[in-house]
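The data layer described in this paper is built around a simple, fixed record for each protein. Such a record has a labelled line for the sequence and another for the backbone structure tokens. For reference, a complete record is included directly beneath this paragraph.
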Amino acid sequence: MRTYSIVFLLSILSITASGQDRPARRNRDFNPELASVSSFQSFTTGVVVKIKSASIAKDGTITARFTLTDSNGEGLDNTGLLTAGSESLSFVAAFIPTGQSQYTAYTTTVDKSITNNNPPQTQAGTDTGGKYALVDAATGTYDYTFGTKVPVTFDATATHSIGVQASRSLAAYGYPTAYTSNDVFTFVPNGSPVVTVRDIVTEASCNGCHNPLSAHGGARQKIAYCVLCHTPQSTNPDTLNTVDLKVFIHKIHMGSSLPSVVAGGKYEVVHRGAVVDFSTVVFPQDVRNCTKCHAAGPTQSSNWATNPSRAACGSCHDNVNFATGLNHVNLIQADDTQCTNCHAAAAHTEFDASIPGAHTIPNRSAALPGVVLKVLKVDNATPGSSPTVTFQVTDKSGAAVDITKLTTIRMVIAGSNVDYGTGTGGMPRVSETPTKATGGANGIYMYTMTSKIPVAATGSYTISMEAANTVTLLPGTTQQMTATDMAMPYEFYLSVDSSPVAARRQVVSLDKCSACHQNLGFIHGGSRGNTQECVICHNPTLTDGTSKQSVSYATQIHSIHRGSNLANPYILGTTNYQSILFPGDLRDCTTCHVNNSYQVDNVGAVASVASPGGFTPTTPPISAACQGCHDDKSTASHALANTTSIGESCATCHGINAQFAVDTVHARVH
């Protein structure tokens, strides 16, 4: 009996051992004997590639010295024989011709069309036929000699750049995602200092949404590397569309808003045999916000305003024909030399022909007077009573606003603040129009709500204000337009039973939403641009009237942003959000979440919602939040099996430091 017990115990231990306790699997070519006697480490993770120097010989031979290391700075064997995993590297060589501003690549191929009979086209690409020479194993230092040679007449005074990408696969060791690294080394072959650069946008701006920027399978993450291949010389042979970065990126981000697409066309390229259609891309904020991408930092960050060109401007405004003057106020533009005559770098007035002026966003115009809300105090806020709210409405200069002149003004009450509309005495969002409020001096008003706080109400409640006004800009001119002057909602938290006031927990950050969306005012006509306001209405009691889908905030926002990766369509009314392609990495919960609120241990919600997917009538709060992304039947079944009459057991496996903690299952290798 004792022997049987020991054997049984050992079998259990072998099953439950963590990945760290199990022996590492070796890739097929790994040679432990060679590794043990070399100065390479036997097993590490990560990859970092860094070009240390580069030169071009008189005969056109390009050589680059680089280091290839793990995340600890230990040298890696680029063959994958002496260190764990396999590495792949690719090199690009390019230069900026004298008098020009963009790169021309030396490393090119001629690609044939796959889908039609278009003539072959030149494409900048990576080097082929190069050779590696190990210099120092401990530091992972190598010399790479390009297979491509530059013409012997190359300009040794021009700016040259060598780009490299490295990818390290440890799939054989249980790491499914490859480690990647990019680097670019810029130099002048004759030894002169680098003066001419191409430095307009950095990945820091891109990563505000893309988190991280990655292309071509994820191995290319630096804009400085992208511009070496996405040059004016590169044309997609199937569509004959240029993939010059300044054109390509503008057109991708315009996507569904391109005039050519609005008119019924498509914007697409064919990459490695696959048609990539960008015609459905929706930029998550107003496309006129040029500084979202062209932010301060790069040397040439102001180029968008100071250096207009037909190619750059025509990439978004692709219904303009510069050769005929069509949609260009009938003016022919034969070259770029006169662009700045009309399109100046600084605006004289909003909406003028200057580049900043022409890209003024009406709803963010400085001419808008502004609407500023504030709840000063709330009286008679007790169960069974109608609260009396003293509030103030001014413009951004502090002048009083006549609330009867506003297009929209609402006063909202809901509770309790744990989960709006739920629990004993819970009150779903109720909205009233307080235009019959008394007062008005200094913009201060007093309004007694018709709604009453439920008799059974306990704890803390919220009273908030929302407002917006429609304003005519440039009245009486041919440019006359309307704009929405949006107030930031104002939430006032109060206790209905003399208990300490508890604000509604903050799960996401408006600032984080604004990194992609700039202004949440595009929702519901512009008066609810604050996440703490959104949750008042999007509470566990709310479902879509058509699809009966839950629009509780956690479920709805997860489902919308998961979009195209959902197992089942998420439809609200007639809108199917399965077309949404989230630009970032969905595993990074902190893109939106604050206060560690994504951890299942910290979910403050207590109420169930209408079930994502409709597999069961309702789903408890932790499962509902997770199933907003993981909406398949097996996940729903798993969650149901781990929920009892006393609650959800999610934290047992998915809690902080648990075996399958959220941070573990959402882990990224970068």
Notes: Residues 32-240 form one domain.
